[in-house]
Amino acid sequence: MGVMKYFSFVLVVVMVLSVTHAQASKKKNWCSETVPYKMGMEKMTKLHFYFHDNITGDYPTTFKIAEAPGVSNTSSTFFGELYMADDPLTVGPDPNSRLVGRAQGFFGFSAQKDLSLIMGISIVFTGNKKLNGSTISIFTRNPIANTDREFSIVGGTGYFKLARGFVTAKTYWASGKNAIVEYTCNIVHY
Ligand SMILES: *[C@@H]1O[C@H](CO)[C@@H](O)[C@H](O)[C@H]1NC(C)=O
Ligand SMILES: *[C@@H]1O[C@H](CO)[C@@H](O)[C@H](O)[C@H]1NC(C)=O
Ligand SMILES: *[C@@H]1O[C@H](CO)[C@@H](O)[C@H](O)[C@H]1NC(C)=O
């Protein structure tokens, strides 16, 4: 009897494995059908904080990572200079006030005739339990010579999934390439 029983056990195992394999092959259908989708109710959250961008000084948080050789160093608008930033965001204009998050990403001088940046940053919030770890993505033109500016919010994660909206930004203080900017975020999300 032993041999027969062993043989049918092996057969069952082989059958189970081939069914599993067939299911795995079906999963190779990597694109789902497109079906109607209803978003939940739109909500608006407003956030207000100060962004500290130091390129020089004792504790810089923004560093030049590239430039256009032979162009950026003769350009009156720093055209082609690219920076990577990990800037603190605080509740008040004082850099020692409570930290609410960080702005991480890059910005580059993108205009030959004006002082203007292209800015792609992700803001991660850490200031309270509700928003902890959630992000908003900003991709925008930033004409830094104007005191008042508007940035576009193009997405988000966590609490701010599917976010869009805008930031009204106002230069609070600037010295050379260091600045404190007041951010008021108007975030529409679900
Ligand atoms: C700019 O950089 C180039 C090399 O990339 C150098 O030849 C030139 O002298 C520099 N010009 C100035 C004004 O520093
Ligand atoms: C940025 O630099 C200024 C001096 O230019 C300094 O007073 C300030 O504390 C620095 N900010 C941060 C966040 O380190
Ligand atoms: C945010 O999350 C981190 C890591 O998950 C945790 O260490 C921290 O205490 C949290 N902060 C708040 C304010 O909830």
Q: How would you characterize this protein structure?
A:
The structure is a single chain. This protein is mainly β and 190 residues long. Helices cover 13% and strands 46% of the residues. It has an 8-stranded antiparallel barrel. A hairpin with a 7-residue loop joins strand 4 and strand 5. The radius of gyration is 26 Å and the shape is globular. Bound molecules: 2-acetamido-2-deoxy-beta-D-glucopyranose (NAG) (3 copies). One 2-acetamido-2-deoxy-beta-D-glucopyranose is lined by residues 126, 128-129, 132-133. It is found in: Secreted, Extracellular space, Apoplast. Belongs to the plant dirigent protein family. This is Dirigent protein. Pfam families: Dirigent.
User: Structural class, judged by helices and strands?
Assistant: mainly beta
Ligands (ions, cofactors included): 2-acetamido-2-deoxy-beta-D-glucopyranose
Q: Strand percentage, roughly? A: over 45%
Shape, per Cα inertia axes = globular
* Order of helix and strand elements from N to C terminus: HEEEEEEEEE
- Our count of helices gives 1
Rg calculated over all Cα atoms: 26 Å
Strand neighbour order, sheet with most strands: 1-3-4-5-6-7-8-9
**What are the low-pLDDT stretches, counting only 5+ consecutive residues below 50?**
none
Fraction in helix: 10-25%
The count of β-strands is 9
The termini sit apart by 65 Å
The mean pLDDT is 91
Biggest sheet overview: 8 strands, antiparallel, barrel
Subcellular location: Secreted, Extracellular space, Apoplast
Subunit structure: Homodimer.
Protein name: Dirigent protein
Family: Belongs to the plant dirigent protein family.
